[in-house]
């Protein structure tokens, strides 16, 4: 005898949907999608002035009884996204994270990069477990990146998430897809795991490893860096005690840029006849 297992249609979990009110019950209102699949919106989330047929934006996930349910609450992460979440509880099976909904987001023990502790925050990736059809999370975030097919080019502006630290620099997630490296000696500010920054593709290597930078390169960085120095000059009575021979470390600390970027910036201002530069003295606003 042959048995067939038919999976019932369910609304996609872990994302927002625009659904319509279909019918009302004592537990709440049932919403319906274009394929006439229903999901319950509990009474606490049902707006008072709704009517049958009205549309509403809701997030769909599994409740404590593992049933699909809708909510108007906005979670801190959706499926296939990265986020920093705080651990609220742990047991022998895993950890439970605060993602802004009634039922906490589960991180199985096997998906923890290091054992999670209550009260601490971790960078996680939210995914749909294909074996259980449940939403879960992992702190092994690098496993959810892919550099086999690259979607970025050198000098391109990108979004970065600081994901880890290594011997040479910070590991970063590029555009929520690729893994890259941001070198310590090119960073002039304090960075933490989970920080989101704007960056630039510095170099794509033959092995598809990617180097990134937080600074635009010379021809790109002249305008914003020059503007920063110009504003600082105006704020400091037209004088700054820095010049071409100032120590690199002092420039990094004061201006949050490399010495090369600093020299390009003041060179631009000098060509525009905005400043005078006096070595061993500083920069003067004309």
Strand order of the largest sheet: 3-2-1-4-5
What do we call the CATH homologous superfamily of the largest domain?
Winged helix-like DNA-binding domain superfamily/Winged helix DNA-binding domain
Percentage of residues in strands: 35-45%
- In whole angstroms, the N-to-C terminal distance is 92 Å
Globally, the shape reads elongated
| Average pLDDT figure | 91
Which CATH class of the largest domain is shown? Mainly Alpha
CATH architecture of the largest domain: Orthogonal Bundle
Please give a handful of descriptors for the protein shown.
18 strands; 4 domains; OB fold (Dihydrolipoamide Acetyltransferase, E2P); five-stranded antiparallel sheet; mainly beta; disordered N terminus; 286 residues
Describe this structure in words.
By secondary structure, this protein is mainly beta. It folds into four domains: 56 residues, Beta Barrel (OB fold (Dihydrolipoamide Acetyltransferase, E2P)); 61 residues, OB fold (Dihydrolipoamide Acetyltransferase, E2P) (Beta Barrel); 67 residues, OB fold (Dihydrolipoamide Acetyltransferase, E2P), CATH 2.40.50; 68 residues, Winged helix-like DNA-binding domain superfamily/Winged helix DNA-binding domain (Arc Repressor Mutant, subunit A, Orthogonal Bundle), CATH 1.10.10. The protein is 14% helix and 38% strand. It contains three helices and 18 strands. The strands form four sheets. Strands 3-2-1-4-5 form a five-stranded antiparallel β-sheet, with no helix packed on it. It has a five-stranded antiparallel β-sheet with strand order 8-7-6-9-10, with no helix packed on it. Strands 11-12-13-15-14 form a five-stranded mixed beta barrel. The longest helix is centred in the C-terminal third of the chain and has 18 residues. The relative contact order is 0.08.
